[in-house]
Amino acid sequence: xxxxxxxxxxxxxxxxxxxxxxxxxxxxxxxxxxxxxxxxxxxxxxxxxxxxxxxxxxxxxxxxxxxxxxxxxxxxxxxxxxxxxxxxxxxxxxxxxxxxxxxxxxxxxxxxxxxxxxxxxxxxxxxxxxxxxxxxxxxxxxxxxxxxxxxxxxxxxxxxxxxxxxxxxxxxxxxxxxxxxxxxxxxxxxxxxxxxxxxxxxxxxxxxxxxxxxxxxxxxxxxxxxxxxxxxxxxxxxxxxxxxxxxxxxxxxxxxxxxxxxxxxxxxxxxxxxxxxxxxxxxxxxxxxxxxxxxxxxxxxxxxxxxxxxxxxxxxxxxxx
Length: 321
Fold this sequence. Notes:
- One of its GO terms (cellular component) is cytosol.
- Residues 10-319 form the Enoyl reductase (ER) domain.
- By secondary structure, the protein is an alpha/beta fold.
- The chain folds into 2 domains: 2-126 and 292-312, Alpha-Beta Complex (Quinone Oxidoreductase, Chain A, domain 1); 129-262, Rossmann fold (3-Layer(aba) Sandwich), CATH 3.40.50.
- The chain contains 10 helices and 15 strands.
- The chain has helices at 42-48, 50-54, 120-127, 129-140, 156-167, 179-187, 217-225, 249-255, 269-285, 301-309; strands at residues 2-6, 15-19, 29-38, 70-78, 90-94, 103-107, 112-113, 147-150, 171-176, 192-195, 210-213, 233-236, 258-261, 292-297, 316-320.
- The strands form 3 sheets. Strands 3, 4, 5, 6, 7, 14 and 15 form a 7-stranded mixed β-sheet that branches. Strands 10-9-8-11-12-13 form a 6-stranded parallel β-sheet, sandwiched between helices.
- The termini are close together.
């Protein structure tokens, strides 16, 4: 099969297509013919080895490695202890053998049938990002009447958060870069849309009750300063800028606000499945509309990573074998 592999850490150019042996489903596994791969910004950090610097608990994979986790596709074969009834069904799940490939191995228990009412790419756009967005809403305890600042509001998670915040009866204040992304955020329900690429952007934003933070660095530091004293909550779930925000503990005490991170939702499969079911149900009912971005051929994985790093993408991005 054809697969994208990383032979050395570095820029997008280290992603190259190789011919490799087809994987085989072992006990408790299924082999899937991949129809789409969900791309995540974190995969650019893994490829460049920035993840090891940002998250020192992240294990560095042995090279060469096929990147990626999220796939949707059709089950072609099953392991010796798995029911053959799955063969021919369309599923979504995490690839144990790497996702940037024509074939992928999934745990049979984690091969989720494509939900009724959703296309494969809509489901893939809700698979990880939907779980993250719903989990963030729970973690931040967003309630009606609050003002909620959503960083990277035109991205895969941010675009879902804008909708969920609005659905909760709160006011979504969207941070994004460029007129096109600001327009997307407004179309999704944001009451305010602010370009955080402009100097002193924070001076044009009134205090907020909640910040849902994925950019990091000075952008998130400025967002923290907007939290309403005594009631504000900030939940950090990403560092797309490549740096954590530097927020002194004395500022937490002075403002009387809460700062937390989002736990690894995948570490609790039961909880993750509950969040996923909620995201899928909202998507199928039309209450949550994933923004589908560009689909890239497998051989253009480097261009896809470059676009992610240059912040030119909106919504969910895909690789297509």
